[in-house]
Amino acid sequence: MPRTADTLPSLRELLTTAVEAVGGTERPGQVTMAEAVHKSIRTGEHLAVQAGTGTGKSLAYLVPAVRHAIETGRTVVVSTATIALQRQLVDRDLPRLAKALKASIGREPTFAILKGRRNYLCLHRLDTGAPEEPDDGGLFDPFAVSALGRHVKRLFEWSSETETGDRDELVPGVTDQAWRQVSVSAKECLGKDKCPFGTDCFAELARAEAGRADLVVTNHALLAIDALQGYQVLPEHDVVIIDEAHELVDRVTSVATAELTAGMVSAAVKRCGRQIAEDIVDRLEEASEGIKEIFDDLPQGRLDDLPRALQGVLTVTRDAAHSCITALGPDRSSQDVESTTARRQAIALLEEIHDTSVRVLEAFDADTGQRRDVVWLSSDMIGGNPRPPALRVAPLGVAGLLRERLFGECTTILTSATLTLGGSFDALARQWGLPVEQRPAQKAEGTATDIAPPADNDAPHWSGIDVGSPFTHEKSGILYVARHLPPPGRDGLQPAFFDELEGLVNAAGGRTLGLFSSMRAARQAADELRERLDFPILCQGEDSTSLLVSKFAEDEATCLFGTLSLWQGVDVPGSSLQLVVVDRIPFPRPDDPLASARQRAVEARGGNGFLTVAATHAALLLAQGAGRLLRSNDDKGVVAILDSRLATARYGGFLRASLPPFWTTYDQSVVRGALARLNS
């Protein structure tokens, strides 16, 4: 039963109880954030909170969320970008919090984790077998086929042991291709009432548990699916808290991206089988052959215009898929389970093919500056081998979707250690669909309500606050910009770069995390420094990332070099990490189809596409990378940016303002001396 506000302890009392129970100490930033979140939930005004590492932001939003759930009887949704944070919340933070608050609120708060249906083992598919899968090129490799068989066998054995059917609980994991053999999408699912395994369905059991919980932990992808789909996925809720909010736009964009391949159409032909007339299926098979021929002939990259040959084959594919869907007819309750399953599997893939074809054809209807989608052709690599070409279509922006389906539906709190870029929330607020007024980020003195909401009454009202960090960045860290180095070129790392890197790593005694803009650069640097230095140097890709990070943390002399996932995924407090090196400002690649199209769209509307897209992308990654240095109060060290443009280019000020407030120097001898003293 819900409790009224006056019978519940105050937020401050609950926060104090929670902090004491977990053995921590209350921090000013944590208290300020908790009060701001509490205020946002009460008033319905959306809130963006930047909370630096060590603030204790999880408790700062979980405590007011629990209080709201207990008071109103309504579920609160907490969304994260990474599995690691999900596991931290569900396995550590929430169990301890629930026990700590039980006496104060009269019962133990309940919580559950909910993921998309594809993340759960499907007992029916396990029993009946998977349909024909789109070919990704791996089936031509006999080693891949035997590995697939081993993985599927493991999954069968695991199915009799697991209580949740949650893929993330299977350690070690299996390939995506193996998992697809035992899972289904929402469209392929028969539904609880029709499926012979409906009462034991892992996905349905997870949804039922989530529906009864005070707090539901999910991920940004499922949050996006809930917003995009015409049916409800998450339990009824009036508040959503988005942690790792700097990842929200990319995760939503990924969910809203569709692709089309010849293999998909070929697989749809096989799924149709004998369910419909042969002449109708033949038209779809001809479309598959046409797609393969056209895709092989087209150059890869962004498509600014729709080639006539591609338009023709997409039109044929669209019409053939529609004919097959019509021939399969409506779902009939009289059909047996086997027939219903075959029909659902065929329809799911046919609808995907049809809808993607329509979307690509319509993407070119508007003028360049007014288009909503970007289309490109690409071929990914799997195990060093290229996949067959895929045609992809993605939204140029998701601001409208988020504004209508997220901020328009419930009170939303967004938080991360990196939300203010260039000293303001504006860059990310634009991407989220929130109105901006070119105001600087408010430094926490009271609560987020210190900032007046925008004057636009039709727009979502929101406020932003930076509650700071418990770390004294200017005393604990140095930002070194190698202003004397030549700007990075296109031909790989230059000799001067290796000389600079060698001197820094030597002074630090190893203890270096190297963050590179590409795997090519990371490998090049690792190979070169192994020739020059005696310190162990690990490079991403030589083993699993988690194992490499563990080895790096265990040995102070070890260095770890890598690319994107290390910019955001390394948490190594202590003396094993005292130097973070960034090879170059991480702008998106000039040939990145989505980033380049977004930049062009901004410019078509009279804006600064470079600052809005490329510089914002770089600022966010730089802030995340620099955040690897200080992970505890005792940490000290250097962030070294070996790209002189950070000091010399006009946009350098915006990028530097996005970084933590380290003491800054351009003097090589000063920074080497500081590292040597730390190492002594």
UniProtKB/TrEMBL annotation:
SMART domains: DEXDc (SM00487), HELICc2 (SM00491). Residues 16-305, 38-282 form the Helicase ATP-binding domain. Transmembrane segments: none annotated. GO terms for molecular function: 5'-3' DNA helicase activity; ATP binding; hydrolase activity, acting on acid anhydrides, in phosphorus-containing anhydrides; nucleic acid binding. It catalyses: ATP + H2O = ADP + phosphate + H(+). Its EC number is 5.6.2.3. This is ATP-dependent helicase DinG. It comes from Kibdelosporangium aridum.
